[in-house]
Every structure is written in C-alpha cells, then in structure tokens.
Write a structure and sequence with these properties.
The complex is a heterodimer of chains A (422) and B (141). With 422 residues, chain A is of the alpha+beta class. Chain A has two domains: 181 residues, Up-down Bundle (Fumarate Reductase Cytochrome B subunit); 146 residues, Sulfite Oxidase, Chain A, domain 2, CATH 3.90.420.10. In chain A, helix 3 packs antiparallel against helix 6, helix 4 packs across helix 5 and helix 5 packs across helix 6. Chain B has 141 residues and is mainly α. Chain B has a domain of 76 residues. In chain B, 77% of the residues lie in helices and 0% in strands. In chain B, helix 2 runs antiparallel to helix 3. The chains are: A alpha+beta (422), B mainly alpha (141). At the A-B interface, helix 4, helix 5, helix 6 and helix 7 of A face helix 1, helix 2, helix 3 and helix 4 of B.
C-alpha cells in the first residue's frame, strides 16, 4: 500500500513540492536572522552616541508600568469606539438595546475622557523609550528591522488617534485632509493590531519589568519612578477635571477647557448642527410644513396642530454627542409607537426610517429599530423644556430616543416610513 | 509564553493587515491624506516635542536649585501635556458663527487659570520642602 505522501515529518521523504516549501521557509527564517552589516562608526553621532541620554529614570519597569496603563487606555477607547461604530452602522448580528437610558452616554463619555487622559500617558511612555529610537546599529538583522517598523506603525497610529480625536472635539477639521470618522476608525484597528504584536514581541521584558524592581538610582533633583508616575497621573487627572464637565454636569463649573457646557445653548441645551448649517431654516419655519407618515395603512400628512392634538408625553432624556458631551433635557411630544400603530405597523417588529428636511448630509436620516421604536420613551418631540423646539433643536418636530447617539436623533423631521424590520 | 507570543504577534499582524485593507477600500477614506498625517505626527513628536521635553529637563537641571527641581519637573510635565491638549481649543479655529454653543468658553483664560493653579501648588511644595527639611531634601538617591 502506498503511504500518504503528505507526512514528511514521519517518513522523512517529503514530496518535491513540500520540500521546496519547507526549504524556502527555512531559508527565509535564516535570512531574517542574518546579521546586517554594521553602518560605518563615523555616522554614529549626536543622539546615536553612547550616553546621549543620561537620565537614570528610564527602566524596563517604568516602561512596563506605563505600557500596561496605556494598553488598558487604548483598549477602553477601542471597545467604546467600536461600539459607537456598530451602533451607527449596525451589521445584521448587532442589536443595541434602548435601555439603560444612560449607557451610550457613559460609553461615549468614557471614550473621550479616556482618550484625553491618555495624552500624558503616551507622552511619558514614548519619553521612556526615546533613546531606543537612536540605538546602534539601527537594526541587528532583517527580523529586527521588521519589528522596529512595527513600533513605528504603533507610535504613528497611537499619536494619530490622540491628535485627530482632540482636533475633532475642538471641531477643527482644517488640518485633517481626510474624513475623520473613517480615518479614526481604521487607524483604531491599526493601533490595536500594532499593540497586540508589540506586546507579543516584548512579553519577556514586560514580565521582567513588572516583577523586578530595580533600585531608584537617580541623582538629587530628579523625579523618582514613583514621582514621574505620580506626575503623569496628575497630568491625566488635571486634563480629566478640565474637560469631563462636558458630560458630568456637576463638574461643568470647574471644567474650564470643556468643549461644551451641558446647559449652554438655545433652551439651555448645546447644538451640534444648526438649522442654518443644515440649510433648513426656510423649510422648517414654513407654516405649510407637514409630517408625512408612511406605513402599511397608507400615507397621512400631519400638521403641527394634528401632532399636538395626539396624546402628549413628557420624558427626560439626554442628548449624547459622539464627541463626548451629553446633556439632560425634558422633551414633550407624541410616542413614536403611537405613530407606528397609526400607520398600521406593529411596534414590536416594525422599524421606522426617519428623514429630515435636509436634502443632503450624512445624518439626514436614521433608522429606528424595533427595540427603540416600541420604547415608550421614544418620542417625536415637539417641545423642549415646555417650549416649542428651538429651530436649532429641530423645530417643528424631532426624534428623541433613549440610549442613542445624538446624530441619530433626527431633527427637522419631514417623513417617517414605518416598515417591517429588515 | 512562546505560543502566547506567537499568537499575539500573528493576531496583531492580521489586524494590521485588516486595517490597511479596510482603509484602502473604504470609499470615505483618503489614504494619501491619512498617510501624510501619520508621518506628520511622528515627526512632530520625535523631532520637536521630544527635543522640547528633554531640553526643558536639562534646563531645569542646570538652572534651578536642587530642592525645587522635582516639583518644577512635575509641574512642567502637567503644563506641557495640558497645553498640548488645550491648544486646538485656545486657537478656536473650530468656532462657528451659527452655533455659539460649540466651544462656548474663553479657553485662553481657562488654560492660564489651570496653569497658574498647577504652578502655585508646585511652588508651594517646593517652598515647603526647602524650609522644612533643608538637609534631607532629595537624599533618597
């Protein structure tokens, strides 16, 4: 009987094809480990010289401790950011609940607060390994060169995420010659992949750093390891206190650098996109405005008076922006599920496409899935804090639902389409 | 540990490949602009910011008396990172005339107030260290 040919380990008679493969694989591994010729010593100047960085504070332990904190911070930002992405672009398997009401406000507030607190962490971590940028020779062998390239990707992606994130909450898009949400999303994958590979490469030294405590042999007047870690934590704390009031309202008075104030804006509520920016001022203020309600039972056109004549409900729901701010507000209007029933749909298995008067723009429409559509807190709101909605808050009618990003709380509603869930 | 490392490196490399593939194929991205920005942040950090940081550390070590160096170093770290974070807000280039609720505060004033507080605490600490334990300051080295 002929033996199976695909068992080279046991019979030591590999087929020619396998042999070539194994051979070339081994050759590649050997090549990766072939020492590279050292560059001429005359090039070893400035920061490349021995002793160019005299600080005794740098140690594997310092870097490992900062690295663990940084991995946790980036991990938190990655998970919360991915969650926001899934909510805004839900794949078939993803379902986001309407309760608890505060959940998205918490995860997105955490995303931005963690990202901001990461600035000193990343800065000090990179300081702790900065001399390695100038190591000599620059690469021992091709494998080492590949690893250093991976570190470059990691640093670039990490800095990119923090810088673009800060520019985004400062609403300064000029320096970014790309679409921020997509770039921030894909670079997040880049960063998280580079972090995992980096941890894999550095695992032995991380372990040493975490288990061995080298003596703190720093000269007088220099921060000790504990002192530097305390200063880093202090910087993270100051940044957090200076900004977190944009979502934690009681801290707003001391958050002198918050990009938003939860009670600042028309009707004491911040605005993300004004009616002027959306180009809907004329249409929204038109007394001839009608909300088109489309569903299995046909199409009806409801005036503001018709909507106000329906049973009104008042709910307290936050507006949560993906930029990390959120604010409580009190809304009055018609329950969306009442409108679904009126259109001939069943709120338990029908979704609603909510369209704005805006003719263009990424957020001119949103889909309200059944979880949110049948929630009694979900309203087509006509009033904010007892007054008709301000034009910038979506007059004559807007959507407000629990536990959703603000960009999906469609303003200046023009049409609701009730349809079976897709 | 060997296999943990291999799995981490393999998973990380696969995710990096996914990120690159995704960024290239996403119709909303501009790979050239993104690549330029990635390069710019690395150069700005490695060439400018690190030089500034290390240079400041050297200056503190040369110019200031030993007992007050530590609180000054700590305050400098906090000031530098806070200022970097606040810079886009202070410049206020994202302000929009149609939306006064965006960037509603005077961020120059806010930054100066916080920096003043940080330095007041640092100098108070330095003064206390200097007066309380003139012979013991910084002797743990």
């Amino acid at each position: 009987m002929v033996r199976e040919p695909d068992d080279p380990v046991n019979d030591h008679v590999p087929t020619p094809h396998t042999a070539t493969f194994v051979h070339s694989g081994r050759a590649a591994l050997r090549w990766l480990r072939t020492p590279l010729p050292a560059p001429p010593a005359s090039l070893r100047r400035g920061p490349f010289q021995n002793g160019a960085f005299p600080s005794r504070l740098r140690s594997p332990r310092l870097t490992a401790l900062l690295g663990v904190a940084l991995a946790l911070a980036f991990g938190t930002c990655f998970v919360t950011g991915l969650l926001d992405h899934l909510i805004q672009h839900p794949p078939g398997w993803f379902h986001w609940p309407s309760r608890p009401v505060w959940l998205f406000r918490f995860t997105q507030g955490l995303h931005v607060a963690t990202g901001l607190a990461t600035i000193p962490l990343l800065g000090v971590k990179l300081w702790s390994v900065y001399p390695r940028l100038f190591r000599w020779p620059p690469a021992r062998d091709p494998a080492h060169a590949v690893e250093r390239l991976g570190v470059l990707v990691l640093i670039a992606a990490g800095l990119f995420q923090l810088v673009t994130g800060v520019l985004n909450i400062a609403l300064w898009y000029g320096p970014m010659h790309f679409f921020f949400p997509s770039a921030h999303y894909w670079t997040a994958w880049l960063a998280i992949g580079a972090i995992l590979a980096h941890i894999g490469v550095k695992l032995p030294i991380i372990r040493t750093g975490l288990t061995h405590r080298p003596p703190n042999a720093v000269p007088p007047g220099t921060l000790t390891r504990r002192g530097l870690l305390a200063a880093t934590a202090g910087a993270a704390g100051v940044i957090t206190l200076a900004t977190v009031g944009q979502t934690v309202a009681p801290l707003a008075p001391i958050s002198l650098l918050a990009p938003r104030r939860p009670r600042t804006g028309p009707q004491q509520l911040p605005v993300n996109r004004s009616a002027a920016a959306a180009g809907v001022r004329t249409l929204a203020a038109d007394p001839g405005w009608r909300l088109i309600l489309d569903g299995p039972a046909g199409t009806t056109r409801l005036s503001l008076g018709d909507l106000a004549a329906l049973p009104q409900h008042t709910v307290s729901l936050p507006i949560t922006c993906v930029e990390g701010w959120s604010a409580d507000a009190v809304w009055t209007g018609v329950r969306l599920r009442d409108l679904i029933a009126r259109a001939g749909g069943d709120p338990d298995n029908h979704e609603v496409l909510a369209e704005s008067l805006e003719t263009a723009g990424l957020y001119r429409s949103s889909v309200v899935d059944p979880a949110h559509a049948h929630d009694p807190l979900t309203l087509v709101a006509l009033q904010l804090r007892g007054e008709p909605l301000h034009l910038d808050h979506g007059y004559p009618a807007r959507l407000i639902a629990p536990n959703r990003p603000g960009v999906l709380q469609t303003k200046w509603l023009s049409r609701l389409t009730v349809r079976p869930e897709r | 540990m060997r296999w943990t490392r291999r799995i981490l490196v393999a998973a990380g490399t696969a995710i990096i490949a996914y990120a690159v593939y995704g960024a290239i194929h996403d119709p909303d991205t501009a790979p050239a602009g993104q690549l330029a920005f990635l390069a710019a942040v690395v150069i700005a950090h490695d060439a400018l910011l690190m030089a500034l940081t290390i240079g400041s550390g050297i200056l503190i070590g040369r110019l200031l008396p030993v007992p007050i160096r530590k609180p000054v170093r700590a305050a400098a770290i906090i000031s530098l990172t806070l200022t970097l974070m606040a810079l886009p807000l202070v410049l206020g280039r994202g302000r929009r005339p149609d939306d006064p609720s965006a960037l509603p505060l005077n961020y120059t004033r806010g930054l100066l107030i916080i920096l003043a507080l940080v330095w007041a605490i640092a100098l108070a600490t330095a003064w206390r260290t200097k007066t309380r334990r003139p012979n013991h300051a910084d002797t743990e080295a």
